[in-house]
Amino acid sequence: HDWRPPSTYLTGDGDEVDDVCTCEKVVIGACQYGGDSFTCAVSPDACDSESTYLGAKQLRDINPGIDCRLCDDFGLPQNAVLKLAPHAANAADPTQQSSSIDDTTTS
Prior knowledge:
The chain has a three-stranded antiparallel beta sheet with strand order 1-5-6, with no helix packed on it. Strands 3-2-4 form a three-stranded antiparallel beta sheet. The protein is elongated. It starts with 14 loop residues before the first strand and ends with a strand. By secondary structure, it is mainly beta. The protein has one helix at residues 56-62; strands at residues 15-16, 29-33, 37-41, 52-54, 80-86, 97-103. It has one helix and six strands, in the order ββββαββ.
């Protein structure tokens, strides 16, 4: 995956969903309670005084079976494509576009 500024999506016909960094691809850390009890967390501020915050790498090193992500998997089909659609009121202004997911599955 490579980083591209959002403006690049205004000029293309569509990008594969796998090429777009979405929240289900963002690995986060966790609060550790005792030995084997974990609750996913974005930062130490999410943990209480009875737990210890572990960053994503530290969590993976301690317990590779725990997979904490910023959000759940979207469950999109492999051939889904990100496309931009203009807002009805601002169709002529490319900065006023919104994104959508197009499932191009054919039967």
